[in-house]
Design goal:
Layout: H1 3-9, E1 10-16, E2 19-24, H2 35-49, E3 56-61, E4 66-68, H3 82-100, E5 106-110, E6 113-115, H4 117-124, E7 127-131, E8 135-137, H5 150-160, H6 162-169, E9 174-176, H7 177-182, E10 188-190, H8 195-207, H9 211-227, H10 233-240, H11 243-260
Parallel strand pairs: 2-3, 3-5, 4-6, 5-7, 6-8, 7-10
Antiparallel strand pairs: 1-2, 8-9
């Protein structure tokens, strides 16, 4: 896959005031990711983070059959040693960690399968909305006979709970949309026809709220879940020292005084 085709498979666009989306567009391979596609994804994520007008980022797969089907199997054909697996998992961690560290809220828009690396990518997003025919799993015990990194297992356990993760990984089973909704993994389930409207409604709501608060909460939660770290003085100082906080206090005080009159 050359540079031009890689850029065509991973693109971004603005979808409304304060909202942008990253689209994985390789439906003929169920949006399976190549190494250059992962690199392009990271490049685009960096561009959007540098744009102060972007207050919410959507991530979606094209085609209506898969969100992302994980890593393209061609990537593994030349593996001859376990050290290549270590390097691969480190590369995946770089991508997933970068998604978790995006300061603005992220929403995975799932229409179809979210499997393997695609499930990890969706889990790294803050919210997930899906069509009612979507499925979630990582059937690697039946397919590639590989494994997931401990860090990605930690993310899945935090999102689904141990029993459901064992169901997906040890039994190579999947969860349907209602079960994913019932355990809190999915924020909202819609029909295919209503998925876009539900997605935009959530994105608009997220984009309307305080980015200072959202970033601090996101990063604090990442540290607790992934680093088992409770150190947050830098985040607390950043929030309480921000102009956004001072403006909000002033505005709230003004409203309270007006209400008393």
């Amino acid at each position: 896959m050359n540079a031009a085709s890689t850029r065509a498979c991973v693109m971004h666009r603005l979808v409304g005031a304060g909202m942008a989306e990253i689209v994985i567009d390789r439906p003929e391979r169920h949006n399976a990711m190549t190494l250059p596609m992962y690199e392009e994804f990271l490049r685009i994520a960096g561009i959007l983070q540098a744009d102060a007008s972007v207050r919410c980022i959507l991530v979606r797969g094209a085609g209506g059959k898969s969100f992302v089907a994980g890593t393209d199997i061609d990537h593994f054909r030349d593996f001859t040693s376990g050290t290549q697996g270590i390097a691969y998992e480190a590369m995946i961690e770089q991508v997933i960690d970068a998604v978790e560290r995006i300061p603005v809220p992220t929403v995975a828009v799932i229409d179809g399968w979210a499997a393997g690396g695609g499930l990890a990518l969706a889990t790294a997003c803050d919210f997930r909305v899906c069509s009612d025919t979507s499925r979630f799993g990582a059937p690697i015990a039946r397919t590639l006979s590989n494994t997931l990194s401990a860090r990605n297992l930690a993310r899945l356990i935090a999102a689904f709970g141990v029993p459901r993760v064992k169901k997906m990984l040890l039994l190579a089973d999947h969860l349907d949309a209602p079960e994913a909704l019932s355990c809190g993994y999915i924020y909202a389930v819609s029909t295919k026809d209503e998925l876009e409207a539900a997605t935009i409604a959530l994105a608009r709501r997220l984009a309307s709220l305080s980015p200072v608060t959202q970033h601090a909460i996101k990063e604090s939660m990442r540290r607790v879940v992934m680093e088992h770290q409770l150190v947050d003085d830098d985040l607390v100082e950043q929030v309480y020292g921000s102009q956004s906080f001072r403006d909000a206090v002033a505005a709230f005080g003004s409203k309270s005084n007006t209400a008393r009159r």
